[in-house]
Each structure stands twice: as C-alpha cells, then as structure tokens.
Amino acid sequence: MANFTLRQLELFAALPDFPTLSAAAASLRISESALSQAITALEKVAGEQLCVRRKARGLQLTPAGQFFAQRARRLIRDADDLVNDLAGAAGTLKGPVKLGCFSSLAHNLLPGILEALPTAHPQLNVDVTVGTHTELLPALDAGLLDMAIVYDMQLPAGYNQRTIYRTELEAVLPPDHKLARQDTVDLAQLAEEPLIMYDSSPSTANTHHVFAERGLRPNVVSSMPQMVLVQAMVGRGLGYALLMSRPNSPGLTVEGRPVAIRPLSPPATRTTVCAIWPEDMSLSPRAEAVVDLAVRILDSQD
User: Is domain 6-64 annotated with CATH 1.10.10.10?
Assistant: First the structure.
C-alpha cells in the first residue's frame, strides 16, 4: 500500500489552481514549508519529480505531476462520495454535485432543474459550471465535474452518456422577415441572407458543415460569443440565426423583442442534449439523481 495520507493528496490536488507555492499555501491555510514537505513526501512515494519549485518562475507541475494531481482529485472525490453515499444508502441523498452545462443551454435548462431540486432532493448541493465543449470536456477529464449537459455533437470517444431530450437546428428570424411567413424554411433560401453566427464550439463548425452538405456557403455578417447577443441582433432585424431547438423558449430576445422560430425543411442537424461523464468514472447516486431530475423535467417538455 502506498504510504501517503489523504491530506497530502488534497494539498497536491489543489496545486494546478495556483501559480506559486506561496499562493497555494496561503489559500490552503498551511505554511509554505509544510506544503513543500507534503510534495516531497509524495514524490518519494511516486519515485519521480512531480513539480518544479522555482521562486523566479513560480510553481510548475511536471507531466507526471499533472497526471498525479488529476488522479488525486478523483481519489478525493471518491472518498467524499463514500461518506455521502452512506447517507444515500440510508435513504437520503446529501452532499455536493458538480454539474457542467453548455453555455447556450444554461438559461433554458438550469432554472427548471434548480427550482425542482429543493423539493426532490433538499440535501443536495449543486455547483454549476457553464462553458463550451472546449471548456467542459477538460474539466470532466480532470475530475472537476461529475457530469456535463451538452449537445451530442462532435464529442470525442471516452464518455458515457444519457439522453435528456432530442433537438434539431432551426432558423431564428426577425418577425417581419419574408421567410417568417412560411411554416418551414429551406437552407437554400437562407444562404444569401445575413447570418448572425453563434460563435461557439461545436455550433460554429456544425453551421458551416450543414451548409457545405448542401453545396452552399453562409453569408456571415457577424459572429457573437453569446446566444443572447445573437438573438438580440436577430430581434433588431440585423440578420437571422441558426440555433438548436430548446424547451421553454419564449420566442423573445433579452430586450423583449419577438423573433420567429421556424424548422428547417429538409431538416439539417438532428441530435440530442445529453448528460456525459468519463467512461472510467461511475456516476455517484447524487449525480445520477440530478440527471434523473433533468430527464423528468426536460424530456416532458420536448
């Protein structure tokens, strides 16, 4: 059995969040010398250098140290899960759940989930991180999130997933646009129209892909990093957008201006919104309960 303590693992797992040893020690409420001793003890167990400690250059983890910190975070979480899941075995789910959510989904999905949570599971504490695939996937792999709610689009291998609801690409138009009079819109009709691009991974790549499949090129006049900005510009008549359908969408911009939402015919991207987590990890009963709640709330509104 490896000769290290859980406290030493907790200290080392925190190191990637700090630029210097002194900053880490201050945040962890431990002396710098005690933190250095903990690192040295772990390096003796590991049999190799885990970090480089230079006053002029700060703190830098070696590749082995980065791997060690990532695995240490998972071990600490598993230890916390052990205690919390004992309460779950007795019939009460309690403790933290770290939930990631794709940025354009957050304002439609999270309020309903968080509203229902106190009634369904009053002793769960959900901590939310919002971001794009390029931000959420590394956080999942590093053990910083239990799971993330994302689009099942361009996901790499190595993740378990559970479908929450089905979705498809739709045209979002100014209400007085000529195409808004139609029940459906053909992508070819949109190619020459000014497109307000939602600039986010994987949305941007998918938009270019669906046009290319039809031998078309979009007329991108602006790219916005936030979906609410895209919708606001559409609401002011500056162009149209292509966005995935979502529940609870009122057809209004953040400024209260109406937009017309029309399905594409023939359909373009049809996919799912799903909860994902690394294949080498198991969902805790707490995290699984949050996924169950999301499915129950959102799938019924699809």
Answer: yes
- DSSP-H helix ranges across 29-164: 32-46, 63-89, 103-120, 133-141
Residue 91 gets the label, from left (phi > 0), alpha (psi -120 to 50) or beta, of left
Q: What are phi and psi of 144, to 5 degrees?
A: -85, -15
Residue 9 in 3-state DSSP? Answer: helix
Contact present, 151 and 244 (Cβ < 8 Å): yes
E-strand spans in the chain? 51-54, 58-61, 95-102, 124-131, 147-151, 159-173, 194-198, 219-224, 241-244, 260-263, 270-278
10 Å Cβ neighbour count for 140? Answer: 22
Give the CATH class of 166-271: alpha beta
Tell me if 73-165+273-299 shares its fold with 166-271. yes
Q: Which top CATH class is 73-165+273-299? A: alpha beta
Measured from the Cβ of residue 24, the count of other Cβ atoms closer than 10 Å reads 21
CB 240 within 8 A of CB 230: no
Residues 233-266 have pLDDT tens digits of: 999 999 999 999 877 677 888 899 999 999 999 9
Q: How wide is the angle at C-alpha 239 spanned by C-alphas 237 and 243, nearest 5°?
A: 115
More confident residue, 87 or 148: 148
pTM of the predicted model, to two decimals? Answer: 0.67
**What 3-state DSSP class applies to 145?**
coil
Question: Whole-angstrom Cα distance, residue 25 to residue 31?
Answer: 6
State how far the Cα of 42 lies from the Cα of 297, in Å rounded to an integer: 45
Q: Give CA separation, 179 vs 4, 76, 115, 188, 261, in Å.
A: 66, 55, 37, 12, 10
- Rounded CA-CA distance 70/159 in Å is 17
